[in-house]
Specification:
Length: about 230
């Protein structure tokens, strides 16, 4: 059975679980994904779950350095093997001995890969104005009751719904979900991203009359339509 790397967002940060595959290949896949999507995880703290895998201090140090390159901090290691526990202690990492809960989605068993389980029913609710310089990140959906000012940023693994004015930057489907949507009572972002696509307001574009709108991907392009005229699947 080939191993995998699984990444899951939690209230306390990120959980990275290493499968039983070859460690260099797992770290290579993890590095490639962080290079492509590192902005989504930047600034996060990481709990590493390795099960019964034997990891020397240099192995943990290599993984810690990889995370640090993307401004992520390894704080906790969950391991059952005494040698791995000892290596974690030597690096000053917080040690827990329990295994991660089995609610993490089953990984693909093709080749070592990075999977990102995301329950579409989960999200976060922000009941305030999001000011310039503030960044909200969540692996699920993000709902904001309030305005998103210019200079503010919302990054979501799922949909983004703004019950107010959207004037900042939004990235929905940040882990590659091109089916995500962005909705707002007034949609006027500095930059809008869905999955791997980017859209910006055209310079000199005539002002639109404010109305609830939804942005979604159609024919490999981001389109914006009035909320009541958008396809129901959007």
């Amino acid at each position: 059975m080939k191993g995998t790397v699984s990444i899951k967002g939690t209230r306390d940060g990120l959980t990275i679980t290493l499968g039983s595959g070859d460690l260099p290949l797992l770290l290579e896949d993890l590095a490639q994904h962080l290079a492509a999507q590192g902005a989504f995880f930047r600034g996060g703290t990481v709990a590493l779950h390795v099960g019964g895998r034997v990891m020397a201090a240099e192995d943990l140090s290599r993984l810690k350095d990889l995370l640090a390159q993307h401004e992520m901090i390894l704080r906790t290691v969950a391991a059952t093997h005494a040698a791995t526990q000892q290596a974690a202690k030597a690096l000053g990492l917080r040690l827990v001995d329990q295994e991660p809960k089995q609610e993490v989605a089953a990984p693909v068993q093709a080749r070592p890969s990075v999977s990102h389980p995301m329950d579409g029913s989960k999200g976060t609710l922000v009941r305030r104005l999001v000011r310039s310089g503030q960044v909200i990140r969540h692996t699920g959906h993000v709902v904001v009751i309030g305005d998103v000012n210019p200079g503010a940023e919302i990054i979501a693994g799922g949909d983004v719904v703004i019950w107010g004015k959207l004037q900042g930057t939004v990235h929905a489907g940040a882990m590659g979900n091109g089916l995500a949507v962005v909705c707002a009572l007034e949609l006027n972002p500095l930059q809008l991203r869905i999955g791997d696509l980017i859209a910006r307001p055209d310079e000199g574009e005539r002002p639109r009359k404010p109305c609830p709108e939804v942005a979604y991907v159609r024919d490999n392009m981001i389109v914006v339509e009035p909320w009541d005229r958008a396809p129901r699947g959007a």
